[in-house]
Amino acid sequence: xxxxxxxxxxxxxxxxxxxxxxxxxxxxxxxxxxxxxxxxxxxxxxxxxxxxxxxxxxxxxxxxxxxxxxxxxxxxxxxxxxxxxxxxxxxxxxxxxxxxxxxxxxxxxxxxxxxxxxxxxxxxxxxxxxxxxxxxxxxxxxxxxxxxxxxxxxxxxxxxxxxxxxxxx
Length: 169
What we know:
CATH topology: Aminopeptidase
């Protein structure tokens, strides 16, 4: 994998609930190389792919995944989102672009969710120590993700509410 200088030659592709058999092996290799899920977990997470980031040769160099989860403390469903980029592709702004694309897609389709169970936003756990130290704004400007506290392990928890979202009584 050659290092990337900028994101101009990278493509974000929406693969939510699409056939990803053509990129399956590359996704697994990326996860294996950078401590992602393996075996059965990898097969399950493959079904959660939302976007993939491809380089100019079409190789998968990053991705977002999402799954719906009920957050008891917030008394609502959210799409739990994970992002991953190969280290050579951790280009300034690319993580935000991937997160915003994922956010915008789920915001556009969340109205199709069943009721009860309709997701009202996104939630993510920020495990990356560098991000926690250097991206410590209460509200991330590009994505609108809001810091709401820390997990038991000390990871930042961030939430984004979809426009017009209503909380459960």
